[in-house]
Write a structure and sequence with these properties.
The protein is 43% helix and 24% strand. The strands form three sheets. The protein has a five-stranded parallel sheet with strand order 2-1-3-4-5, with helices on both faces. Strand 7 and strand 8 form a beta hairpin. Helix 2 packs parallel to helix 3 and helix 6 packs across helix 8. The protein is elongated.
């Protein structure tokens, strides 16, 4: 069965190029030129994934996403954006975006990201890690300890996932920032340090878990098995 993608983009030339490319990849593509039309098309025809510009007339991508999330909390949503500040990016993820791509972008990268989002959406099983006495659920973005469940933000989930995939190994700070924000800048380093602090607090109930700051390099997640 062919996946249906809703492309919401007000730049007509870009919309034509992207929609033609996606159809060549075997997807059914619906298009809309603004947030209002995009929302109407989603209500009427649905979609397996939404690719949407942020800055659009009538209704921008953020406002459209808020309305779509009321209708479907799980449909994958990828933002195309010329906005580049951390605040803008965080706003998109807090609304419920699953990924974003900065303009201008390579069509090949867009296709790779779409395929990854659809694969994740089609998985039936939840992706979980056991971290000491915690259960880290990437699918639901939660961290469970005994009978308590803490909801994590997108950024906390992404950072902790990378650390959990490399237990006992240092993850370069630049690698973390590029994975989360797609660039390594001084302002991102401050944000990364802030999220690491939040993750440490979230894991503080198990003293066997530690996130070590390898100054000048990055961060390492360690778990002392003798204390679990």
């Amino acid at each position: 069965m062919r996946n249906k993608i809703l492309l919401v983009e007000d730049e007509s030339d870009l919309a034509l190029i992207v929609s033609d490319t996606l159809r060549e990849q075997g997807y059914d593509v619906l298009t809309a030129g603004n947030g209002i039309t995009g929302l109407d098309r989603f209500k009427a025809e649905g979609a397996d994934l939404i690719v949407a510009d942020v800055m659009m007339p009538k209704m921008d991508g953020f406002k459209m996403a808020k309305e779509i999330r009321k209708l479907s909390p799980i449909v994958p949503l990828l933002f195309l954006t010329a906005k580049s500040t951390i605040d803008d990016i965080e706003e998109g993820f807090e609304i419920g975006a699953n990924d974003y791509l900065k303009k201008p972008f390579e069509l090949r990268e867009l296709i790779v990201r779409i395929k990854a989002l659809l694969r994740r959406a089609n998985r039936q099983e939840e992706i979980k890690y056991e971290l000491g006495r915690y259960v880290f659920n990437i699918t639901t973005q939660t961290l469970s300890y005994e009978n308590s469940v803490l909801e994590l933000s997108y950024f906390e989930t992404k950072i902790l996932e990378m650390l959990a995939n490399n237990i006992g190994r240092t993850v370069d700070a630049s690698e973390l920032m590029i994975a989360v924000w797609q660039r390594d800048e001084p302002s991102n380093r401050n944000s990364l340090h802030g999220y690491i602090y939040k993750i440490r607090k979230a894991l503080a109930k198990d003293s066997s878990i530690n996130i070590i700051n390898q100054r000048g390099f990055g961060y390492m997640l360690t778990i002392n098995d003798t204390n679990t």
